[in-house]
Design brief:
By secondary structure, the protein is α/β, with parallel strands linked by helices. The chain folds into 2 domains: about 90 residues, no CATH class; about 130 residues, Rossmann fold (3-Layer(aba) Sandwich). The chain is built from 9 helices and 5 strands; from the N terminus they run ααβαββαβαβαααα. The longest helix has 20 residues.
């Protein structure tokens, strides 16, 4: 059972297609246009609380651009971030720009101008709207020039609806008490929740037992350590 859990709790790579939109449908539509580069704004800034899905969206957008044969890079920011390797890309996704040090802020400002001149595209995320970022004023101004969207985290009700739909698509009914149990005991981001649900479905089929709270309780000791390892890896 433990090996089964380890095989099935790894979330799939983030894509725009497996992002649960919730109240972010308009943002998702504009990101699709950003990827195609055929229409719409080429510069987008998104912000939201931790766990809202910002990183998922940036990684998914970069993956879609690469699939289309266009050069793209994803950069996760910290105080020592450098952009030398990303400077020649046609599309760039910069995650957690609020963490950038002074030198990196100057580099991103220059990259913004370069991409604008080259008809490139830039997608940036942060933990607050541009005007509230503690960054250089000239960079803040640039980040606010394009489209700005808040990424709304899913409510528990929206997560429940998404899990219920996912279960129905796999051909089984998800009891409400099982959904509540999962929301209270496993990582709450949707990729992790969906991966756990898939593992439960597989274990249910293997053991010929319905998905109930006792079945979940039985499987969680194998699932939770693997989730924690994936989180730290």
């Amino acid at each position: 059972m433990k090996q089964l859990a380890l095989d099935f709790i790894v979330p799939p790579p983030p894509t725009l297609g497996n992002f649960v939109a919730g109240r972010n449908a308009e943002l998702l539509q504009n990101l699709g246009q950003w990827v195609s580069r055929a229409a719409g704004e080429r510069f987008i800034y998104i912000w939201g609380m931790a766990g809202s899905g910002r990183s998922h969206l940036l990684k998914g957008a970069v993956a879609a651009v690469r699939d289309a044969g266009v050069s793209a890079a994803y950069v996760a920011c910290d105080g020592d971030t450098q952009f030398e390797k990303a400077g020649h890309m046609d599309c760039l996704a910069v995650d957690n720009a609020d963490r950038l040090g002074e030198a990196a802020q100057i580099a991103l400002f220059n990259l913004y101008n370069s991409l604008r001149e080259r008809r490139g595209a830039l997608l940036v995320s942060g933990n607050a709207p541009p005007a509230q970022l503690r960054l250089r004023a000239d960079l803040v101004t640039r980040l606010g020039w394009g489209l700005v969207y808040q990424v709304h985290a899913l409510s528990d009700e929206e997560k429940t609806q998404a899990l219920t739909r996912h279960a129905a698509a796999r051909g089984f009914r998800l009891p409400g008490e099982v959904c509540d149990y999962l929301l209270n005991r496993v990582r709450r981001d949707m990729p992790s929740l969906l991966a756990v649900l898939d593992a439960l479905d597989r274990h249910s089929l293997e053991t010929k037992r319905p998905i109930t709270v006792p079945l979940v309780r039985e499987l969680l000791p194998a699932i939770l350590p693997a989730q924690d390892a994936g989180k730290n890896g």
